[in-house]
UniProtKB/TrEMBL annotation:
This is Lycopene beta-cyclase. Signal peptide: none annotated. Residues 606-629 are annotated as: Disordered. Coiled coil: none annotated.
Amino acid sequence: MMALQFKLEQYPPICGGGSFSYYPFAIPPIGRQRNQSLQAQALPSRTQRIMESISVSGEVGGAGGSYSYDALKRLDQLWSGICSAQTDVLEPQKVVSSVPGLFSQSDVAGKAVETFDVIVCGGTLGIFIATALSCKGLRVGIVERGVLKGREQEWNISRQELLELVEVGIITEDDIEQSIASIFNPNRCGFEGKGEIWVEDILNLGISPAKLIEVMKKRFDSLGGIIFEGDSVSGISIYEDAAVLQLAKAKILSSRLLIDAMGNFSPVVKQIRRGKKPDGVCLVVGSCCRGFKDNSTSDVIFSSSAVKEVGESEAHYFWEAFPAGSGPMDRTSYMFTYVDPHPGCPKLEELLEDYWDLMPNYQVGVSLDNLEILRVIYGIFPTYRGRIDLTVHCQRLLIEFYRFSCYCPEQFGDASGIQSPVSFGGFGSLTRHLGRLSAGIYEAINGDLLDSNNLSLLNPYMPNLSASWLFQRAMSAKKESNVSPDFINELLYVNFRSMQRLGDPVLRPFLQDVIQFGPLVKTLGLVMITKPLIIPSIFKQVGVPVLLDWSGHFFMLGYYTFLSTFVDPVIRPLVNAVPAKMKYKWRRQLEAWQYGSGLDYKMSNPNTTKAERGMGTGGEAWAESKSLP
């Protein structure tokens, strides 16, 4: 389970990136806002009192960079707009337009301030792909609406994943060591009232985004990259030979390729999806507090015992907790839930009210009165099931992969994103796919393979990600499902216990968001043998249509595993002998088989220090004594 990251832009615009000014959803009527404001003034909630007592001077752009109560209310308004929509939300503002002809022959060509091979919109995570492309000799620019710097809250990741950045060549191991704010072991997967599993070296590093982004900025600058800070994009024009950005401060930038790294609420992606309502959403709240005396371990996931009523809806709460790098007694804990957007869904402030009540029970041995609350964290993560053929809608190029979208002239290509709909993780997914994506983008630019068909190969169908949609559905509480209140907790416990019995080759990839055919078959088989009576409840929870759809992806997962295992070794030696365009296509196909089957995952035991293994603190013995039988 990836550590959750969050996205919220500064007011007045609410958007998902660092570059655009745009309201993507309808806001409740002014009268309703005024009534809500009067009620809040008359009787402030505990959340309001807590948040207004905390300094928010450290807010930045990017995921998890906003902490204020006003920003929370704006995000709740946005969330209400999503929930109140019947099927689709309002038609989004048009920010990308297709222009016939060549930019080089247009009237505005002479007004371009800078010309690039690649421009990245949104720099918090975009700087990683930008630096990787700069390392390959491309001229790259970044547009960031605010100041490009990392947030205070750490990113949690495993060392094995972090070393992918070293392999790509954008940072050194010394840079990584300087960016590590905290190290902790062991790591718990817990299920209230059922049991717990203890693992090591899973999400056990706390990385300081502020330090890491600063390292990346220096590296990017040394490679000749240019960052346009404090400026937003007012429009994008796609010509036959260039993608052109009009900045709010009247600058015009042109590039051969434009990458949208603006996250979940990118207005460009909203435009392409035409206001389509999300199929599922993860709501997350949490805080970083000081005062935890026992603070040497983490929770990768902890499941509450039963579904809970929240307002007019039901929710099953999950938790994560990690030691923070700001002090030995500082700890960050997240509470999250999965919902289908509909009227009556709980608001973030309602979840925070539950969080304050439940967190002391979850973090056994602490009292809220004895904790110093350093900051409050919150966010929403929408996810969409299936793929959309973007070429049908308009004649432009846009390919969305991970949290990136690529543009080139003529028409759109589609991609569904490479982050798991279960974890909604960003940084870990980035490290895993950065090498593949940077190499593919460079090859496309170098070979002038910038049409929609070729760019779409950078983000192919990946059955392991599509198959993980079932897990998100199974973890979403529904009143009409007619299952026992503790079903979700029981289902997770049974699956995790089966994976633990099957060993690290099954459990560890899953905990790092990698779904593989063999481990999945073994786990499902063991669950059916040891807990056959749970099968009917699964049908009730997720529904027959979803199971049938998942069966197709499950079959394709097995097919991709076969192709990557047996066909890839035969084809790969022959690829270098074919023409450049065919070579590009076959390389992307081989990558699709490998990553789509999860066979890119590296099962390794990196050398760790005694502190990381928990030695000297009784960590290893504790892990053994607490593990399931």
